[in-house]
Write a structure and sequence with these properties.
Layout (H helix, E strand, L loop, with lengths): L23 H6 L4 E4 L3 E4 H17 L7 E5 L4 H12 L3 E4 L6 H11 L3 E5 L3 H7 L8 E5 L14 E2 H7 L14 E6 L9 E5 H17 L11 E2 L13 H8 L2 E4 L5 H11 L3 E4 L1 H9 L12 E4 L6 H9 L3 E7 L6 E4 L11 H8 L4 E2 L4 E5 L14 E6 L11 H7 L5 E9 L5 E6 L4 E3 L2 E3 L1 H9 L4 E11 L3 E10 L9 H14 L10 E4 L13 H6 L7
Parallel strand pairs: 1-11, 3-4, 3-5, 4-8, 5-6, 6-7, 10-11, 12-13, 13-14, 24-25
Antiparallel strand pairs: 1-2, 8-9, 14-15, 15-16, 17-18, 18-19, 19-20, 21-22, 23-24
Helix pairs in contact: 2-3, 2-6, 7-8, 11-12
Length: about 550
């Protein structure tokens, strides 16, 4: 018997899942809630809605129509938040431009996406002048400057952001349309080949927002995020919708604090003065903040931080807990909108010592609502959830990109077998926690056995002299590959520890913790820097290409 479709009365409204619907709750429950940029721009949700309307009207007057692409180049600001809403709400597509890519890559992404309009912060005028003659589709430019800088002579600017909002009407009739309409586009960081474009619909973003809110709001104590929290992103808003949390914060009517370009002293000041209680960032950014002298004078006891982009080292989790910070892991990819899992402790776990809590906090987490996540072998067969058996993480959820922009072969490979392939290797324990153990391309095959680079990194990071570490595989005539740890020491500990001492430290842990016996073949080299991607992840591809160039 076929399924029975719910009948619809002719006059009944078919409510599409559009981004504009996320504004209904804050305007009803928190219209006076604050949004601030660095503490120097401050307005409420009523004004946010008005500025969104003005932006849409202004863009329409510049010729922007449904289906066209508006690209944004800015740091984390109230302007970015306005674009998160106004552009897709008018039926256009928001391209969030990764400003940390190289000029050639930025040029490639703008041309490949077919951007029609570019909104640009004055910080990027020199870059724009460099690439403007080769822009193929951008015909309209909008500029702004926090410092009041004049725009460049070329390319010619068509409007200044604040002036065009002031001249626009305070209302705009945002239409209903198909919830499957494209809302956003952005590009992966391009650690292999050219960046790949991913895209998401209104429906996908709304469902991702609802699932994120349900997940973080469902915890009783640890990792619990609610409407009374004060939100500040410390993840660039060009990166995967800043993990989706600006939409969550807006829907819940939270006070929102936007820091602009990341400056540790400013971030510490905003945490203190604005009462920030919830953020998210990569481990390197958190380390940068906590290493700044201002951090020692800042109260972090109410701060909840989701770590993503790279693995949370257990040693860092312990250190943050000692500072009163509720730190926990989130996991996802550019292709997944992004969040798939979040690691939250049960109330009983909070009685454990910090070191034991850190083991859970550093796990990749449990799936959010509506996420079908599996660990599979090469034939897409499930492996045991025993915390030991590993396989590739594959996933289904209603917000995953349906492919790459103009890349049909890569899109099919991404979705081979009807599941999105993450390229990550991991295991699931009996409690349901996922633990990523490596990237498929980063596992090290030594003596015919797989050695996890992430496990070795976690061990070495526990040494008190280590600031950061990346483990890569290097060719070896006898073993095929051998793990090499590239270690950046804390400045004050340089010269106090030897490579041999670190190898011995790691070997003891390898033998004690049941890691592949070939982990004892670890080599150690001290480096003056570690190569990272534009969003702060370790770029192991480039480090593998010439590791000796990094060594001291």
């Amino acid at each position: 018997m076929p399924v029975r479709i719910v009948p619809s009365t002719p006059s009944a409204h078919r409510f599409p899942l559009l981004i504009k619907q996320l504004l209904l709750t804050p305007l009803a429950t928190a219209p006076e809630g604050e949004i601030t940029y660095q503490g120097r721009v401050r307005y409420d949700y009523r004004t946010l809605a008005e500025r969104i309307a003005r932006l849409a009207g202004a863009l329409q007057s510049l010729g922007v129509d449904a289906g066209q692409t508006v690209a944004m180049m800015d740091w984390d600001s109230h302007r970015y938040l306005e674009c998160f809403f106004a552009v897709p709400m008018m039926g256009a597509i928001l391209q969030t431009v990764n400003v940390r890519l190289s000029p050639e890559q930025i040029l490639y992404t703008l041309n490949h996406a077919g951007a029609d309009v570019l909104i640009v912060n004055s910080d990027f005028f020199p870059l724009l002048e460099q690439i403007a003659p080769r822009l193929e589709t951008v015909k309209t430019f909008v500029h702004f400057s926090d410092e009041g800088l004049a725009p460049p002579a070329a390319p010619p600017m068509h409007a200044e952001y604040e002036s065009m909002l002031a001249a626009a009407a305070p209302t705009f009739e945002f239409p209903d349309f198909d919830e499957n309409a494209q809302a956003t586009a952005f590009y992966t960081t391009g650690t292999t080949g050219e960046p790949k474009g991913v895209y998401f619909s209104h429906r996908q973003l709304v469902l991702h927002t609802l699932s994120c809110a349900a997940m973080v709001g469902g915890s009783d104590r640890e990792g619990h995020v609610h409407r009374e929290d004060v939100y500040m992103p410390i993840t660039p808003m060009f990166h995967v919708h800043a993990w989706g949390f600006p939409y969550v914060a807006t829907m819940l009517g939270m006070k929102q604090v936007y820091p602009g370009r990341y400056q540790p002293d400013l971030i510490c000041r905003l945490i203190a003065e604005e009462g920030v209680t919830f953020s998210h960032c990569v481990p390197t950014i958190l380390h940068m903040i906590m290493s700044h002298p201002q951090a020692s004078r800042t109260d972090f006891s109410r701060w909840k931080v989701v770590i993503g982009g790279s693995a949370l080292p257990e040693a860092m989790a312990v250190a943050m807990q000692k500072r009163g910070i509720d730190v926990f892991t989130g996991y996802g990819l550019s292709e997944t909108c992004p969040v798939l899992t979040i690691s939250q402790l049960e109330n009983a776990d909070l009685a454990l010592p910090f070191e034991e809590q850190a083991v859970i906090r550093a796990k990749t987490g449990r799936p959010m609502p509506l996420v079908d996540l599996r660990i599979v072998d090469a034939r897409l067969r499930d492996v045991e959830h025993d915390g030991k058996a590993t396989g590739e993480v594959v996933v289904r959820a209603p917000w995953l990109t349906q492919g790459y922009i103009r890349a049909p072969e890569a899109s099919e490979a991404l979705w081979a077998g009807g599941y999105l392939h993450t390229g990550d290797i991991g295991h699931i324990d009996p409690a349901g926690y996922l633990k990523i153990t490596d990237r498929i391309k980063d596992v090290i095959k030594t003596g015919g056995e797989w050695v996890s680079s992430l496990q070795l990194e976690d061990i070495i990071a526990r040494h008190e002299a280590v600031k950061e570490v990346a483990v890569i595989g290097v060719p070896d005539e006898k073993w095929g590959e051998r793990p090499l740890a590239l270690v950046l020491l804390k400045p004050e500990r340089a010269g106090e520890v030897t490579e041999h001492a670190l190898r011995s430290f790691a070997a003891q842990a390898v033998e004690a913790e049941g890691i592949s016996r070939y982990g004892v073949l670890l080599q150690v080299r001290f480096v003056k820097t570690l190569v990272k991607t534009s969003v702060g992840k370790m770029n192991k591809r480039l480090m593998r290409a010439d590791p000796e160039a990094l060594c001291m």
